[in-house]
Amino acid sequence: MANSNLGLFFVFALLGIVELEASHHVYKHLQTFQSSSSSANQPYRTGYHFQPPKNWINDPNGVMIYKGLYHFFYQYNPKGAVWGNIVWAHSTSEDLVNWTPHEPAIYPSQPSDINGCWSGSATILSSGKPAMLYTGIDSQNRQVQNLAIPKNLSNPYLTEWVKSAKNPLMQPTAQNHINASSFRDPTTAWLGPNKEWRVIIGSKVNRQGLAILYKSKNFVNWYQSKTPLHSADNTGMWECPDFFPVLLHGQNGVDTSLNGPNVKHVLKVSFDDTKHDCYTIGSYDNVEDIYTPDEGSVEGDSGLRYDYGKYYASKTFFDNVQNRRILTSWINESSSAADDIKKGWSGVHAIPRKIWLDEFGKQLVQWPVVEIEKLRANHVSLANKLLEGGSVIEVPGVTATQADVEVSFEVKDFEKAEVLEPSWTNPQLLCTRMGASVIGSLGPFGLLVLASEGLKERTAVFFRIFKGHTKYVVLMCSDQSRSSLNQDNDMTTYGAFLDVDIRHHKLSLRSLIDHSIVESFGGGGKVCITSRVYPTLAINEAAHLYAFNNGNQSIKILELNAWSMKTAKIN
């Protein structure tokens, strides 16, 4: 891309005097934020999930809060609805719900990123100034790491960014033996006890996944640590790593540099082989710079996941105004590439989630940010409603294509639960074999969303309860097998085991429904499953919402609350 080569120099306080190269060649001719087609012609466009009016998007990049504004940078193709021509698009928000688009912040302009500006992260430096580390694809098609900072720090919208003339700051060499095609996605950096910055970058050696660690005193001159922060055999390429502390108690978030006796650390990696975001919880020795997962942790695709459906390349940031850690993620399509091109867009982002450590320190809990509730309207409620075996009841009065539903169930007669066979260890396979149409004892029961009249199309989000060897086991499923009459879509069924003591706690489910997305939260956010569905009948006013029970035993709805969701202002 052309470079204006104005030779600007900036004094960037914490970094010292750093020569920066400003690129003012903007993408106005590619920034096609125009009104989209009507909802009748675009029944799958979302009403309150983040997406630009057209074209391809994928990973969230730098996400941060600066001068009271949330900044969202993301991978965007300004030229079409398939991956390619990637730039860093940029939007801002006061509430994480309504977003204002700006011109692309980072785009190819230097030898170190001339073939692409890929994922990266934002770091708020000690002075309060933001800095972006990102992966560039250089003129040799190597993956290298670059730095960009805002041109005008007094402008809260941060609409112009300049790149370091010293880019690339980190790169593969013959000496460091880093794979030039597997070296990407720098994290938010953190400060160690010696006041050096640390950052990790995803990589691999053969089938061993790596979090390569770099250090710097000034955020410009980086050197590679002798050992990675962590690695794991037989996990393949680690994309989009994320590393952050969580408090042992309570729901507040903490700064990324915090360490001590009252925190655990989370290492999340996006497995390139399976496109799943998995994490472990453990301890970080910030002197030796080694992360150790807790005993019993499962590393790999069968371990803990943020979301057991469509959810990839996620990233967190610390919201120091609300004292919370926020999780963002890309939700890719389940439709064919041909359909994506036809509709003119591909990809959306999940509703931002607050995350914290559960009371037992075993897993993370996730819940949609409270700001999304400002879109609620037309409240409908049910209470103490018995769902007899084989029953389906409609939830009337809400816009079924754009809704927020919370329901809690009371379960009795546990002794009648089906026995969980010892070989039934794969919850997704179990959900596939025992979908919503398969009659059980205690379940399946839950919600039928984006359902057509007569139920030719429906997406079922439900629970089944089994009798395990030592306790009752709750299975949560999202069954897309009948979500659409269009067989060109991926209609994979998803599932996970929910860690909840069903004998002493009610069983809760929340689903955010938005035309072609269903984000579901079981057990107060202990299990999350996101689905992409494209019904042909259950669209617009023809969609319905039901509660159902296809088990032999009756289940009681203790309370059900549903709201139509107003449309957010995103473009």
Automatic annotation (TrEMBL):
GO biological process, one term: carbohydrate metabolic process
Keywords recorded for this protein, A-Z: Glycosidase, Hydrolase, Signal
Superkingdom in the source lineage: Eukaryota
InterPro entries: ConA-like_dom_sf, Fructan_Metab_Enzymes, Glyco_hydro_32, Glyco_hydro_32_AS, Glyco_hydro_32_C, Glyco_hydro_32_N, Glyco_hydro_beta-prop_sf
Signal peptide from the UniProt entry: 1-22
SMART domains noted in UniProt: Glyco_32
Domain (Glycosyl hydrolase family 32 C-terminal) ranges: 371-564
GO molecular function list: hydrolase activity, hydrolyzing O-glycosyl compounds
Segments forming domain Glycosyl hydrolase family 32 N-terminal: 49-368
Pfam (any one): Glyco_hydro_32C
UniProt similarity note: Belongs to the glycosyl hydrolase 32 family.
Protein name: Glycosyl hydrolase family 32 N-terminal domain-containing protein
Species the sequence originates in: Gossypium mustelinum (Cotton)
